[in-house]
Amino acid sequence: MSKPLQAFIFDLDGVITDTAEYHYLAWKKLGEELGIPFTREFNEELKGVSRMDSLEKILTLGNRQNDFSQDEKEALATKKNEHYVQLIANITPKDILPGIKELLAEVKAAGYKLGLASVSKNAFAVMESLELKSEFDVIVDAATIVRGKPDPEIFLTAAKLLNVDANACIGIEDAAAGVDSIKDAGMFAVGVGSAETLAKADLVYPSTDKLSFGEIVKMHQEK
User: Which has the closest alpha carbon to 158: 188, 212, 115, 192?
Assistant: First the structure.
C-alpha cells in the first residue's frame, strides 16, 4: 500500500506544454550543421533525456562521438539551446496542453502539493511564459541535479523539497525515461502517450485532455 497521497509532481515538456517540437527543430538544425540528419523517430529517443546526453546520442548516431573535446561538446549544446530559446520566446498560456489547467486546479483544491521535475535548463522561463510558475510549490530543473532522467534523482529531489515522502507522490510523465525515473523513486507513475512506450507506468492516458484526477487518486490509493 502506498502512503496517503501528499503531492503531484509533473514533468514539463509534453505534459504541461509541448516544447518537444522546438527541441526537435533545434537539435535537427544542429545535426544538419554537423552532417548528422535524423528522423522524428530517432528524436523520440531524446525525450526526457538531458541536453548533454542527447548530444552524445546524436554524435553517436553520426559516428562522430570522438570528434569533439568536452569543451567543444559544451559549445555545441549551448548552440542548440540558443536556437531553442529563440523558438520558445513566443510561448504563452495558450500553449498549456488541454486539460492541464483543470487538473492543476483540482490538485490544489484537494490540498495536495505541486512540484515540477524537468531536465530542461529553461524550465523557469517556460513556466513564467505559461504564467504557471506561482502555481507550483517547487520547481526542480537541470541546474538543481547531477544526474538526469532515467535516474530518480530529480523526482526524489522534488519530493524532498516538498517535504513529502516519495511513496506519497504521483509523478506524471510523457517519456519512458521519465517513467523509469518516477518508478525508481518509489512513486506512482502516470504516463501520457503510448501505452506500449510507457508500459512501466501504473496508469497511462493517451493525451493530457484524458487525465482524470479522480481516477488517478483512486488508483494510487489502491496500489
Answer: 115
